[in-house]
Amino acid sequence: MDVNAQTAADATVVSEVVREVGKRIVGQEYMVERLLISLLTGGHVLLEGVPGLAKTLTVRTLAETINTSFSRIQFTPDLLPADVVGTQIYDQSNGKFSVKKGPIFANIILADEINRAPAKVQAALLEAMQEKQVTIGGTTHVLEEPFLVLATQNPIEQEGTYPLPEAQIDRFMLKLHVGYPTRDEEKEVLRRMASGEPIPVNRVATPQQILAARRHIAGLYMDDRVVDYIVDIVHTTRDPGAAGLADLAPLIEFGASPRATLSLAQASRAHAFLRGRAFVTPEDVKAIAPDVLRHRVLRTYEAEAEEVTSDAIVDRILDAIPAP
Questions:
Q1: Distance of CA 257 to the CA centre of its chain
Q2: What is the pTM of this model?
Q3: Phi, psi of 95 (to 5 degrees)
């Protein structure tokens, strides 16, 4: 299959997924598109928003459109690592241990209210997210691709929560701020949900098609000037003075890591693909950069005291770096 035919085939699969998700989800185009970008790049996503914004429903619906396995893990303070990854069980009949796999052994994982999990559970999840494998009883088990962790957290309720460690937050390719629907969208939600019956969606894609699209997207053309633009943006989060933003230096505790550079390049390629282009533009980079960087730019106490958000810092950086 030539490049143009492959591009058309990938685009058809993605458009069918979007259409099926749209049957159940009203609006929230930003969230749906970013979830598609994660699916097409293999990057994990952290969804942050108040309860009732259809975060869980969107993730579940996306999983239902793909002929693949799905697990929902409700994180609670009393959860144990074995509840997530699995454990060894002794079989008296043969005197041997067998492995009982946990819910992490699925292609798409919905980690609901992930910040309610204690440190041990978060550490177990860290290995799965980064290494795509888990260890049970000293034996390593490789997780089947595609493997995605789509996690949600509630930003307004802090009682009984455990803030995610920076090392784990950095494993998420994107962090999304999910907002309220518009008035018209909310009226449409009421209309669709009036019957109380679940809205069915069809399975329109296979894991093989998703992995094929990933390989194609990874090869999309990116000009050296766009590469330089990405590196300049990420480097400025570490040394804002070099870009003439010396006033930001006291507000940034730590800048983004090289993992952010890789994530920004991957996400920019997927963003271009979703717009029907076989090449990446600076506009793709600028559009996706806040989602890639907002959780990787760690603020100082001074920034928190002045109520300067990571988003505001990233916006200043994007405005200061000239696009090629």
A1: 17
A2: 0.86
A3: 70, 25
